[in-house]
């Protein structure tokens, strides 16, 4: 909690102003019962109208002061809470951007979304209440008891006895509430996860008639959220009845014993009225506590979830070496006894890989599903680090290179074509933010998508639907390729990113890539693509079973021969 609240340091001045104004409000509220007692005892009971007018005017003046202080306090409280929320969200987002894939495996997407939105909102609300009413409530209780003791210490002892009991009850309640509300936030994560998966896979759900199944899955997650929320709220709602019962009993005792003191002349009626007034205000402050308690419990649970993200150790640290400029990169890549397994598992997906690729060479990686092709790709731009061995570029261990300078020289087209909200022009410029329109068109032409774009009504200003729903699979792949080519990378990684393209279009793209003179890695299942590669790496169960060009492997590798023969026969059959 303290780590999250440390973001308030940037708002020291408005925080102090808000707290000062809150104290002004509190001062006004604590003095009103004393002034009322003065009016009753010296004015009403003695039939002295001047006393009533003078002290009544003072009460009214103080009321206006308190009103003004409250309005300005609300302004500063809102300013601080909104700025605080912005800073926390920004820090969380920046932290997530620095996460490695291993970190992202620990925090599911749905959970991160909840932490960035709902959890931050809980803390934000707590900050606003803290500056507006939270600190005021305990001070009102303490101040009310002190003022009651000044008015009549014997009767005020009733309040002195009951206050600690109520305080201990609420401390116990808050401890239980934190645990319960943490479970509520976790169930909210689960609901968000189901909703996200459902919306993302809506076409598949409709195609497979899984509507009822998804409804039941959502109903189950939603029911668990409902049950946990009800359980937490039931506990918190116990506060109000207990507070009212104890405080009303205290007021009855004050009236009961006060009546004897008035009869015996030990107390004035104004004093009794003031004590009842203080007791009522204390009761109101404790009732505010029940509301604050619920928010404090939720905020504490949320803050621990936020801190988990902020304090997460990022395992991919930036290299300590000097950044290399583009003209210093050549693009030769070497794997030296590289093995790799994913976090939280000991099963190695890559085993003792050793190979070298010269600058400008095209390397095709061929293998069955699960053989480790994509895992190999992810080691080159340091999306993961190898568990043993070393990956070097131009004889530099990539762990020693600055991540920014390394990744700027790599064009990566993932297996799933991921497009972003915005225009076609903006999506291609993802590869190079400051690209000119001529560079965008050049990249689109190289990716064989320029003609298609020119036929669209708004051409390069055409807005892409969510995840590119208004584009075909082949168009999305070509846009992804254009996004990688626009940066003219020294190393290009194509992860089965031409699977939706016909052979002619794919051939033109590969010719355009050759003109870039970049080192190219291609994951593919097409023999036609493999045949034009300078080297072919055959992977099986994470091991290199053979390495060579097409003619070499065709003569000496039985696995390669089987793959070649199966596809060759399919082509003959389709052409026949």
TrEMBL record:
Transmembrane segments: 15-32, 52-76, 133-151, 157-175, 235-258, 278-297
Domain ABC transporter: 333-566
GO MF entries: ABC-type oligopeptide transporter activity; ATP binding; ATP hydrolysis activity
Keyword field: ATP-binding, Cell membrane, Membrane, Nucleotide-binding, Transmembrane, Transmembrane helix, Transport
Domain ABC transmembrane type-1 positions: 17-298
Pfam families, per the entry: ABC_membrane, ABC_tran
A cellular component annotation (GO) from this entry: plasma membrane
Membrane-related topology note: Multi-pass membrane protein
Subcellular location: Cell membrane
InterPro entries: AAA+_ATPase, ABC1_TM_dom, ABC1_TM_sf, ABC_transporter-like_ATP-bd, ABC_transporter-like_CS, P-loop_NTPase, Type_1_exporter
Alphabetical list of PANTHER family matching this protein: ATP-BINDING CASSETTE SUB-FAMILY B MEMBER 10, MITOCHONDRIAL, ATP-DEPENDENT PERMEASE MDL1, MITOCHONDRIAL
Name of the molecule in the record: ABC transporter ATP-binding protein
Protein species of origin: Anaerobacillus isosaccharinicus
């Amino acid at each position: 909690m303290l780590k999250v609240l440390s973001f308030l340091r940037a708002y020291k001045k408005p925080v102090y102003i808000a707290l000062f104004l809150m104290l002004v409000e509190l001062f006004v509220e604590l003095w009103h019962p004393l002034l009322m007692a003065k009016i009753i005892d010296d004015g009403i009971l003695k039939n002295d109208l001047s006393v009533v007018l003078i002290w009544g005017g003072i009460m009214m003046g103080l009321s206006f002061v308190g009103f003004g202080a409250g309005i300005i306090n609300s302004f500063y409280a809102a300013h601080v809470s909104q700025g605080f929320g912005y800073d926390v969200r920004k820090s969380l987002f920046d932290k997530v951007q620095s996460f490695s894939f291993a970190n992202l495996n620990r925090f599911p997407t749905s959970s991160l979304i909840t932490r960035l939105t709902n959890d931050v909102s809980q803390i934000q609300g707590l900050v606003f209440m803290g500056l507006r009413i939270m600190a005021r409530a305990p001070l009102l209780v303490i101040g009310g008891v002190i003022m009651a003791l000044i008015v009549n210490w014997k009767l005020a002892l009733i309040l002195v006895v009951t206050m600690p009991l109520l305080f201990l009850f609420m401390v116990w309640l808050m401890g239980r509430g934190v645990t319960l509300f943490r479970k509520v936030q976790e169930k909210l994560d689960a609901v968000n996860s189901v909703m996200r998966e459902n919306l993302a896979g809506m076409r598949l759900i409709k195609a497979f008639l899984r509507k009822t199944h998804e409804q039941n899955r959502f109903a189950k997650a939603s029911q668990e959220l409902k049950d946990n929320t009800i359980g937490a709220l039931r506990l918190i709602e116990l506060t109000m009845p207990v507070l009212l019962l104890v405080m009303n009993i205290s007021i009855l005792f004050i009236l009961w014993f006060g009546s004897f003191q008035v009869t015996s002349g030990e107390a004035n009626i104004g004093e009794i009225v003031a004590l009842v007034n203080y007791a009522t205000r204390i009761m109101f402050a404790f009732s505010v506590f029940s509301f604050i308690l619920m928010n404090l419990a939720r905020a504490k649970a949320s803050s621990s979830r936020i801190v988990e993200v902020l304090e997460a150790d990022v395992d991919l640290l930036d290299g300590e070496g000097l950044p290399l400029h583009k003209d210093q990169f050549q693009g030769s890549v070497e794997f030296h006894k590289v093995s790799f397994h994913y976090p939280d598992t000991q099963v190695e997906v890559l085993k003792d890989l050793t190979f070298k690729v010269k600058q400008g060479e095209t390397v095709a990686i061929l293998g069955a599903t699960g053989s480790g092709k994509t895992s190999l790709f992810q080691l080159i731009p340091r999306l993961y680090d190898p568990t043993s061995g070393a990956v070097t570029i131009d004889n530099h261990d990539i762990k020693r290179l600055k991540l920014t300078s390394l990744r700027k020289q790599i064009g990566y087209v993932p297996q799933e074509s991921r497009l972003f909200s915005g225009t076609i022009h903006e999506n291609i410029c993802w590869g190079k933010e400051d690209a000119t329109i001529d560079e965008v068109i050049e990249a689109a032409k190289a990716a064989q998508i320029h003609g298609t774009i020119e036929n669209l009504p708004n051409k390069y200003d055409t807005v892409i639907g969510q995840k590119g729903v208004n584009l075909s699979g082949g168009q999305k792949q070509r846009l992804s390729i254009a996004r990688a080519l626009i940066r003219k990378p020294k190393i290009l990684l194509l992860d089965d990113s031409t699977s939706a393209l016909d052979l002619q279009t794919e051939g033109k793209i590969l010719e355009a890539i050759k003109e870039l003179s970049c080192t190219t890695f291609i994951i593919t299942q097409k023999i036609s693509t493999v045949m034009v590669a300078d080297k072919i790496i055959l992977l099986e169960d994470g091991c290199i079973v053979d390495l060579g060009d097409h003619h070499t492997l065709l003569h000496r590798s039985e696995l390669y021969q089987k793959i070649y023969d199966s596809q060759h026969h399919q082509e003959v059959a389709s052409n026949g």
